[in-house]
Design brief:
elongated; Jelly Rolls; mainly beta
Length: about 475
């Protein structure tokens, strides 16, 4: 198949298998090491697979895998990767059910009974030579009688989600319940911490932990209360969006070992309001104008100049999310940028002058002059003033993006002492930039909703948001250089 099908996302879909044989013919060889196929079983079945017609001097094996995670999650995480390069990720998302490795050009065969309904992947892998092959698949549904002559229950338990929207500012967890039911009895042992997981905005994925289990009198229904930790440890307005709650495969079974398949149980929405006291000062309404910033810093140091106390960082693993609101209680728009380039260096009063140049322009609405002493005024957090002391000097972080040159951030952090080692630590670690707790400066970005360039004096008391129509090169000249 010319190598395109060695990735799960491009696996050939055989559809839902039945007793009617499904045949496929293709090639395997040195330039096409793996062929991947995908199929579904609609109910518990016996499966028969065969690989035949290999040429003399060729050798190929056959492997069968089941999903350990929902299909969409699996494809999103590893679907575009070469199957032979999955490494440890393979065990996270797939479980090998069976394999046939007879050697030389012998026919390969896999026969497996009591396979539960769900989605499976089949791999034909080259071991030696080039050859055409024929693959055949059949599936027969199973419902064997028990010793008493009664039909065995093959209907898996059902799961019903009860999830409310999340709306508490500063909350650290989120709770929801899932009710598992079966016409015989659900297996309580299988209702454990690994049953359910949650995915959401900004590539969030978290496992939900079991808090409590309540069953009805005949044991055919269990209501399980789960708890998940908030993204980043605390719910903020930056976490808003739709979250999906999904059931893991092979976890919840009835007494006859029929398992509920992996699927999405439902969704909830995070509707976390902005803090009642704006970070940058202002009127104090519940949804003030401004730019919220959320950072995920995972950088590798690209260059280091000890003489100038400058650290440059290549941010292939970083993400910075900006949420824009141009008017009080107005609409919010959000952008998430990756590959941030960050320069950390000493803070000078000339850096404040660079912001002055920006705010003093005629194009700026609500122009305001910022002086170095204004930084010491600090910001308001949870109704309390936080003052900043730059008597020991400070460090500045300049953040830019190659693919979004008009989006810039310049942040300032005061140093706790005058030790050279402390300064180097702040420049080298970027820890304060990750926390954004003791940090001030200016944020500039283009609001995708209005196409306005928007800037905020971040964390500086009694300063308001500034809307701009400044040309891109002017911002870069004033802030980046």
């Amino acid at each position: 198949m010319a190598g395109a099908d060695n990735r799960l996302r491009r696996a050939v879909n055989l559809g839902t298998l039945s007793a009617a044989p499904v045949n496929r013919s293709s090639n395997i060889g040195r330039s096409d090491l793996d062929d991947l196929y995908r199929f579904s079983l609609s109910q518990r079945s016996s499966l028969n697979l065969s690989l035949s017609s290999l040429a003399r001097g060729a050798n190929a094996d056959l492997e069968l895998y089941r999903l350990k995670r929902p299909l969409n999650d699996t494809l999103r995480q590893i679907g575009n990767l070469d199957f032979r390069k999955l490494g440890n990720k393979l065990k996270t998302y797939l479980q090998r059910v069976a394999a046939s490795k007879r050697g030389k050009n012998q026919n390969e065969a896999i026969s497996v009974s009591d396979l539960e309904a769900g989605i499976y992947f089949l791999r034909v892998l080259q071991r030696q030579g080039n050859s055409r092959y024929v693959l055949q698949t059949t599936a027969t549904s199973e419902q064997p009688p028990d010793p008493g002559g009664r039909s065995v229950d093959t209907i898996a338990p059902t799961a019903i989600l009860d999830a409310r929207n999340a709306s508490t500012v500063g909350g650290t967890t989120y709770n929801f319940t899932v009710t598992y039911s079966d016409d015989t009895a659900a297996d309580l042992i299988k209702v454990a911490n690994s049953n359910v997981f949650v995915t959401g905005p900004n590539d969030f994925r978290g496992q939900a932990n079991r808090l409590a289990v309540n069953s009805n009198s005949n044991g055919t229904s269990y209501t399980v209360t789960y708890e998940m930790v908030a993204p980043g440890g605390t719910w903020t307005s930056l976490d808003n969006g739709i979250y999906s709650i999904a059931l893991e495969a092979n976890q919840v079974k009835n007494l006859n070992n029929s398992a509920a398949t992996t699927h999405t149980l439902g969704t909830f929405e995070a509707l976390i309001p902005d803090p009642s006291v704006p970070r940058s000062g202002g009127s104090g309404n519940s949804s003030p104008p401004g730019i919220d910033v959320k950072t995920e810093i995972a950088l590798s140091r690209q260059d280091w100049n000890l003489d100038q106390n400058i650290g440059s960082f290549n941010g292939a693993g970083s993400k910075i999310t900006l949420r824009f609101r141009e008017e009080a209680n107005g609409p919010i728009t959000e952008i998430t940028l990756a590959n941030a380039n960050i320069e950390a260096s000493d803070l000078w009063e000339s850096d404040i002058q660079a912001i002055d140049n920006l705010l003093a322009r005629e194009e700026v609405i609500g122009s305001k002059s910022l002086k170095f002493n204004d930084l010491r005024l600090g910001k308001t957090v949870d109704g309390k003033d936080v003052n900043f002391d730059y008597s020991n000097g400070g460090v500045k972080y300049k953040v830019s993006f190659l693919n979004q040159p008009e989006t810039l951030l310049m942040f300032f952090v005061p140093l706790p002492d005058r030790k050279a080692s402390t300064r180097l630590t702040y420049i080298n670690s970027l820890s304060e930039l990750s926390k954004l707790s003791q940090i001030q400066g200016v944020v500039v970005g283009r609001n995708p909703l209005t196409n306005n360039l928007v800037s905020e004096l971040y964390g500086i008391g009694r300063q308001s948001i500034t809307l701009t129509t400044i040309p891109d090169d002017a911002i870069r000249n004033d802030l980046l250089y």
